[in-house]
Amino acid sequence: MSAVLLVLLFLLAAASGAAVVMTRDPRQQIFAMAANGLVLTLLFFALQAPDVALSELAVGTAATPLLFLVTMAIVTINRSRK
Asked: What pTM value is reported for the model?
């Protein structure tokens, strides 16, 4: 059962990574990147690497997408002022 779970998580990680690359809209790409981070977090937990999983959860799922969203908001505000 554990091998089936790992194969499923690997396929899900590949699909979510492809979704990040294939998405054209930057906002949707940020959310796809956050979803990819969440899938990778689950994969790391399944591979019994909880410290790496928690780091991925904090950085890949929360911090980096949030920084991208804030940056996009600032750029949008600055464009509308000109």
From this structure: 0.89
Q: Can you tell me the distance from the alpha carbon of 81 to that of 72, in angstroms, rounded to the nearest whole number?
A: 14
Gyration radius of the chain over CA positions: 15
pLDDT digit string (tens) for the chain, length 82 residues: 699 999 999 999 999 999 999 999 999 999 999 999 999 999 999 999 999 999 999 999 999 999 999 999 999 999 888 7
Annotate 29-69 with DSSP letters as a single string. HHHHHHHHHHHHHHHHHHTT-HHHHHHHIIIIIIIHHHHHH
Q: Which domain holds residue 65?
A: 2-81
